UniProtKB/TrEMBL annotation:
InterPro entries (alphabetical): Epimerase_deHydtase, NAD(P)-bd_dom_sf, NAD(P)-dependent_oxidoreduct
Gene3D superfamilies cross-referenced by the UniProt entry: NAD(P)-binding Rossmann-like Domain
EC class: oxidoreductase
Domain NAD-dependent epimerase/dehydratase, chain residue ranges per copy: 3-213
Protein name: 2-alkyl-3-oxoalkanoate reductase
Gene behind the chain: oleD_2
EC number(s) on file: 1.1.1.412
Key word DNA damage present: no
Record keyword Oxidoreductase present: yes
Keywords attached to this entry: Oxidoreductase
Amino acid sequence: MDVFLTGATGYIGEAVAELLVARGHTVVGLTRDPRSSRASALEDAGVRVVAGDVGDPGSYRARLAAAEVVIHTVADGRRPVESDEQLFAELLALRAAGRAPHLVYTTGCSVYGAHCHPLLDESTPTDPDHPRARLEAQLATSRLAHTIVRPALVFGGHGRSSLLGRWLDEARDGVAVFYGDARKVWSWVHVDDLARGYAAIVERLAELDGEAFLLADDAPVAALETYEACQRAFGRTGPVTHAPISEEAPVYQVFDRHEIVDSRKAQRLLGWTPRATSVMELVAALPGRTATHPEL
Ligand SMILES: NC(=O)c1ccc[n+]([C@@H]2O[C@H](COP(=O)([O-])OP(=O)(O)OC[C@H]3O[C@@H](n4cnc5c(N)ncnc54)[C@H](OP(=O)(O)O)[C@@H]3O)[C@@H](O)[C@H]2O)c1
């Protein structure tokens, strides 16, 4: 498949790009800075890196037209809703011209908002007030060929953009502050398993128009337990201070509730099974390593 990938230098995008190339797909990856070391590493892995900004459709329009699949993994920090709406508009214009690639659209469990559901699956109602849920709803009525990916919290690999990476950095630096509800339980997905989920979608597109997939492993765990394990990984055995969720980074405030994900739909329709180590196994294997954590 000819794939155009936004966010190719990102945590998820890099893993997806490298796996798709290894599986024989052609990947053109978008970045704002094609001279970065991450962009060079992608080029070395066989990805064609191109310059552009999702907030500037003219910078990537021709790439959309040339692609069979567009995988979108950018969350534009400045104008997240407008940039995605511009992408949809570009794809709709292509559709009107008789040619539109299939969009694999990344959101996340934030689409369920702050509501506490005992278990999340694709039939769980999303929060109509959440901007990303509204973008998903726009797609559903747009007649664009699309598939939605909602990853659980991602860990593994280099851990950049992973909450686990931040927690380990905090433990290394002697910070021990846990935010919000100490009883919340979260599902996680290893970045390599997640990349295999995207690959499975790309390779079954014809059957998946309009579908959404929640991708998580089968090892949900109390967030506080994981936080404390991160502390222990750096030999910190002192008490953890608890702080209100209002003091947490805004992006994580919506997750101050259970996020236990049922991925049986992905297992059934994609033949996807998580294979990687669980988050707790990974953290438990860290002691004895250096203060830089090569595998998060
Ligand atoms: N990480 C998680 O635990 C997690 C969990 C669930 C869902 N998600 C979702 O998955 C998606 C990807 O997450 P991630 O963790 O891989 O993010 P990330 O590591 O922050 O990477 C995103 C990439 O997007 C690119 N980017 C940002 N703004 C851009 C713009 N205006 N134009 C073009 N490129 C732009 C950046 O590349 P350049 O700087 O090279 O341009 C960056 O490398 C996001 O939608 C996120 O909300 C993430």
